[in-house]
Amino acid sequence: MPRIAFSLALAGLLFGTLVPAAAQDSDSTTRVRPRITIHPRTSHPGPHAKRYCRSWLVQEYRVSGPVIVPRMQCWWQ
Questions:
Q1: Terminus of the chain with fewer CB atoms < 10 Å: N or C?
Q2: With left for phi above 0 and alpha for psi between -120 and 50, is residue 29 left, alpha or beta?
């Protein structure tokens, strides 16, 4: 009999904590989402455009250990 009472009390605690979480989901619809602006890029840079690049090395942490990998960022002007 004590095991049944303990099981019921445990179930009440578990389900009691799940009910407020379900109630919080209805409040999430009133939150304001941030706006993201996407600017279109030109498809062709032009006849006299020049490509500039910047490169650097970054240390990444992997399972085998730290590894140095190259990174590059390029743009047209």
A1: N
A2: alpha
